[in-house]
TrEMBL record, chains A, B:
It comes from the Bacteria. This is Helix-turn-helix transcriptional regulator. The keyword Signal does not apply. It comes from Hymenobacter setariae. The keyword Nucleotidyltransferase does not apply. Residues 12-123 form the HTH hxlR-type domain.
DNA sequence: CTGGATCCTAACTGATACTG
DNA sequence: CAGTATCAGTTAGGATCCAG
């Protein structure tokens, strides 16, 4: 109970307006990108470029067509991806990132970095002592 | 429908192992930090340093005690915050960030930056033309 | 192949009241 | 002050089926 240090940054405590603006911006971002799949889809598109519906369904392991469809619509409405219907025999649809989607890359990178560090961090701690919520 | 460019990065298509590792890390991070309040709480603690339960309830506008309690427990289990019971008359509890929580700062900053840019971006587009999902 | 329709459940969220 | 208990509403997400 004793050996855990704490930190305090208090970056913009002295500027409430700036703080509120940043808080609102963060809530905007969360509302837009939260959920189980949005970042996953974006990362796939970053990696593979243009993809079709089925490609995304396969790379986003576990997603169902309905959910994928909904996620894609939301991303399109927010101008992060484009949807293009191709004039092929069984109709195909291509999805790709918009230039605006580049703005999400720092978020994705930060999430990945945190995930990598956190996994090693947690691993060690959980081996040393069980998580706090453990019954007894 | 025509004027929207697309981009393609295809950063690590040639290294599936690295890609999968990054994907898993991102999913870890999402599982841990997703939700309506986690980032909000972390940002508050960044800004104000040590806070008590009631402080957090007031700055995280809209949150109920039950939800706040749960979010705090999860953050504590994941070693992002510490919980300290103070020996005061009506007992008080202090919450603070752990050093490990510093790793979340790039994520938070990236989210804030994206939120700021996205708001201006979307504003203009929505004024020019309604979002895609509009009935008619 | 794309993805909508339907149904369903677990989880999240909220309001209120209550206890140590 | 710091929560937990209870009750209730909403929703995200999944399973399955089917249509263009």
């Amino acid at each position: 109970m004793a050996a855990v240090e704490t930190i305090s940054l208090a970056t913009c405590e002295q500027d409430p307006a700036l703080y509120n603006e940043r808080m609102r911006a963060m809530k905007d971002a969360i509302e837009l990108l939260s959920g189980k799949w949005k970042f996953c889809i974006l990362l796939n598109l970053y990696n593979y470029g243009t993809m079709r519906f089925k490609d995304l369904q396969e790379t986003s392991t576990g997603i169902t067509p309905k959910v994928l469809s909904k996620e894609l619509q939301e991303l399109e409405e927010n101008l992060l991806i484009t949807r293009t219907v191709n004039n092929t025999k069984p109709v195909t649809v291509s999805y790709a990132l918009t230039p605006h989607a580049i703005e999400t890359q720092p978020v994705i990178n930060a999430l990945v970095e945190f995930g990598l560090k956190h996994r090693t961090k947690i691993k060690g701690n959980y081996l040393a002592q069980p998580p706090v919520g453990t019954p007894a």
